[in-house]
Amino acid sequence: MPRPKLQAGTWGEFSQTTLENGKVVLTARYRRLDGGESKTTAQGRSRSEAARKLLGKLPALVAEASSAKGTPDPAAPRTFRDLALEWIEHDRLRMEQGEIAPSTRHEHERITRNILLPRLGDELVDRITTREISIAYHQMVREWPAQARNAKGVLSLIMTYAAQMGVVDRNVVREVPAMRRKKKEIFAPGIEELRVFSAAVVAYNEDPDRPGPMPSPLLLDAVDMILATGLRIGEVLGLRWEKDVHLDTGSPYVVVNGAVKEKGGAKRWEPFPKSEAGRREIALPEYAVAILLRRLVDNVGGSEFVFHTRTLRPNGQQDVHRSLRNVRRHAGLPNDYVPHALRKSVGTVVANRIGLEQTALLLGHERSRVTEQYYAKRTRETPDVRDIVHAVHDTIGAVKRRGSEGA
User: Which end of the chain is more exposed for a tag (fewer CB within 10 A), N or C?
Assistant: First the structure.
């Protein structure tokens, strides 16, 4: 079967070769804007590293020789709007190559269209200065404090693309330091708070007068699985029988291979944890194994997902959040009780027992600094060092006695 013809300005799927030294070489066919076809390669220690290098080269390569045929010169002055829309298409191609998740691409486009284009759309890209970026960023911090950091990150991706395309000499966004966000106190419910919360979930399910559908074990089981593993809610809902859940071993465990996402479309499973550090194996306590065995028995429809709807599709994060809002309203609990707060409870307990580095591995963080700053609530209880300081006191006392005897 002949290979499909490439459209001008695009490239095909990557073919892979593994060298004797273990390095991966990726090759891509591409068609320039002037219609000519060629190939290029990149190598790295892994497929993802080689793909990043290849994707960094291809935009400029497909634009080569375009000015000779009368098409727009990629280095000619362009507005930020034109470049940003071109980058959105480049981001879509990265998604199709499996380099980024659909939800990530959707978020990139949302931020670009709703935040960046209204502010910078008419500016000429090669005239944008560090000062303009700094002013725009500070305005975003005031108007969208929760999204400003992400908006700056997307803006940096666009300007990096502009540098790769030869539109600008450098990415000026990198010269603008990120503003330190005001540190919020970590809400990580303690044991008594978790007891109150669990009782509220049970009371809501057992209330015969409550409105809504028939009671379901979804919320309580999802809560218990978060407390058993420290997983994100999307990771819990993304657990699949056989592929991710392993109960037929001496030490049952789950593997995080992806998560259920809802941004940018219908709820779906994606093979993209939040980061590479998110791919991890977690040993299960006995009560979590009991929950999974019960759900396996109840899975008469044969859904591949541990948490699923009547149509055998995965439950979505909004299903859990909706149930949790009803519980909070029913019990008069504050809005702080969300699935992520329970994850922070796990992070706090584990960090106080075995330290931040191991807790970061459990939670799927690339750096323990993230664990310390956002997940592990600092305890005020200091270690019991009475024996140590008493030994110091005895030593000092012995020195004093020897000193007085010498006198």
Answer: N
Q: How far is Cα 131 from Cα 205, in angstroms, rounded to an integer?
A: 56
Look up tokens 């600008």; give the residue: 168
Query: How crowded is residue 69: how many other Cβ atoms within 10 Å of its Cβ?
Result: 11
Mean of all residue pLDDT scores within the chain: 83
Which tokens belong to 280?
A: 């991890």
Question: Is 91's pLDDT higher than 60?
Answer: yes
- HSE-CB of 167 using CA atoms within 13 angstroms: 27
DSSP β-bridge partners for residue 283: 253
- Cα gap 152→8, rounded to integer Å: 31
* Angle value at C-alpha 159, between 156 and 165, nearest 5 degrees: 145
Provide the CA 78 distance to its chain's centre, in angstroms.
Answer: 33
Q: Which of 345, 215, 318 is nearest to 260 (CA)?
A: 318
- Long-range Cβ contacts of 112-117 (<8 Å, 24+ apart): 112/84, 112/87, 112/88, 112/154, 112/158, 115/140, 115/144, 115/147, 115/151, 116/80, 116/84, 116/151, 116/154, 116/155, 116/158, 117/80, 117/81, 117/84
CB 191 within 8 A of CB 296: no
How does residue 401 score in pLDDT terms, banded at 50, 70 and 90?
A: low
Instruction: Report the distance separating Cα 115 and Cα 137, nearest Å.
Output: 11
Provide the 10 A C-beta neighbour count for residue 228.
21
* β-bridge partners, 380: none
CA-derived radius of gyration, the chain: 27
pTM listed for this prediction: 0.65
* Crossing angle of the two packed helices 286-298 and 218-229, in degrees rounded to 10: 150
Secondary structure (3-state) at 215 = coil
pLDDT over 50 (residue 93): yes
With 0-12 / 13-18 / 19 or more C-beta atoms within 10 angstroms meaning exposed / middle / buried, residue 378 is exposed
Q: How confident is the model over 28-34, as a mean pLDDT?
A: 78
53 burial via Cβ count (<10 Å: 0-12, 13-18, 19+): middle
Cα distances (angstroms) measured from residue 38 to each of 57, 74, 299: 13, 19, 52
Strand-pairing partners, residue 29, are 39
* Contacts (Cβ under 8 Å, ≥6 apart) of 372: 351, 356
